[in-house]
Amino acid sequence: MRFFTLLLFSVFFFFHVQAQSGKLTGKVTNNKNEAISGATLSITETNRSILSDIEGRYVITLAPGKYSLTISYVGYNKKSINEIEIQAGKETTLDILLEESSKNQLNEVVIKGTPARKESVSAMISYQRNTAVVAQVISAEAIRRSPDKNTGEVLKRVPGTSVQEGKYLVVRGLSDRYNQAMLNGIMLSSTEPDRKTFSYDLFPAPMVDNIVINKTFIPELSGEWAGGLVQVQTKEIPSSDFLNIQIGTGFNSATIGRDFYSYKGGKLDWLGVEDGTRKIPDNMPTKSEFDKLDQAQKNELAKGFRNVWAGTPKNAPLNKQFQLSSGFTGKLFGKKAGGIIAFTYNQTNRRLNYDNAIIANDEGTQDLYYKNNKYSQDVLAGVLANFSIQLNSNNKISFRNILNVNSTDYVIDRYDGRDYILGPGDGDKVKAQELSFRQNTFFNTQLLGEHNLPKYAVRIKWYGSFNILDQYIPEQHRLFYTQNETTPNAPYIALLGAGASQKSGSLYY
């Protein structure tokens, strides 16, 4: 009983002490936004000093109160920050920018009365001011203060940029194809198989350490862009364990409460994944083998396809948003290790109304005209997993992964149209439907190493990266109808067997 009581008291005392302590964390960088490894950080009140690690990061556990911090490194101006307030059980973030000193004189910069959390923002502003190129910078502190859920929303706030469809970036009026994305210093491929672009809503905002948008070229970085080079840095080993969960919903006034149609599929459509419901029948022969079959055999094969040629009516659902992010720290083989894992899910429902006019002749007159209602359910589901181990204060290895599924399930209802080619005068009335499901899968994995050799003033970085980008479009249905108005109460007639034209009823895989 005494042992049990002592154990309980010890556990209570441990957590009580932990709750009474606070943490001062941050990162030390230079004017080029490069981490400074081995910078000395001294707390005046406690006579305690530590060194920043290979990422320039530091963690200091302190009792509640106000402290003064001095930061120094060879070749840089010493910096002092006063009035840093530490609160019990809370983490105070203080990112520090050191400026290179002149050869003749090392000056000390003293900042008095500066709240710690403002320093994180000012460090990135100082980088932006001192850099030799035109750049926009967003710090992790600025991201924390905003309500943004992902990088696409964060980039909307940058002057000179705009975001299309919530994810595609336009810089200085130049479309997404003229921009380039980099993740942790590694160039990323396009996330769309049929266009050169990158979907910036892949990265949850809490996972981002900082974002730098370069608008002029840099000698040491890629030049495969004309609008902007977007450098996204994700967090690695967190200063402490954390768990964040965000759940949200929303609706569009042009969609909610109105007619809505969906393309009936499998049980995993809500996740943006085709589960095989729409796949091409397994017994489908090659074209040469198909041509040898008689009509009865071809008809029998046709029975294997799903007979779905119209959208399924339903009530427009609310949009759904879910995000979970977690970070952990610990020891692996006696070395400091940690990681960050994040899950994100967004389901957006849209109802669009627009007109189409097709002009395809030399006279410039319309060949085809119709109105459209498009009903779409867009799903973005992704996983981010970063793991790092610090072998010592000068060596680190990281393993980073991203898996993203971006899918669109849509129904297009074309109505009140005219076909001026088939019909005389005002043309035949036309209507059509298109049902389609498109799934894009993007996977990126990176293995990186950073090694600091202070004896030789050399810093080495290496990496290996692998990408998979896949687009899958199963069972796209198209059916086109015409009505001859010269005949009273004429029915709409489906156009079938008209070759490869989109006017012909078709299934596309």
Features:
509 residues; mainly beta; 10-stranded antiparallel beta sheet; 5-stranded mixed beta sheet; disordered N terminus
What does this structure look like?
By secondary structure, this protein is mostly beta strands. Helices cover 11% and strands 47% of the residues. Strands 17, 20, 21, 22, 23, 24, 25, 26, 27 and 28 form a ten-stranded antiparallel sheet that branches. Strand 2 and strand 3 form a beta hairpin. The longest helix is centred in the N-terminal third of the chain and has 19 residues. The N terminus is likely disordered.
Task: State the gist of this model.
The chain is mainly beta.
Give the helix/strand layout:
Blueprint: H1 2-20, E1 22-29, E2 40-43, E3 48-51, E4 57-62, E5 65-72, E6 79-86, E7 91-93, E8 96-97, E9 109-111, H2 116-130, E10 135-139, H3 140-145, H4 151-155, E11 161-164, E12 168-171, E13 180-183, E14 186-187, E15 208-214, E16 229-234, E17 242-250, E18 259-262, H5 287-291, H6 295-302, E19 312-315, E20 319-332, E21 335-358, E22 368-392, E23 395-419, E24 428-453, E25 458-472, E26 476-483, E27 493-494, E28 506-508
Parallel strand pairs: 1-7, 1-8, 6-9, 13-16
Antiparallel strand pairs: 1-4, 2-3, 2-5, 5-6, 10-15, 11-12, 13-14, 15-16, 17-20, 18-19, 20-21, 21-22, 22-23, 23-24, 24-25, 24-26, 26-27, 26-28
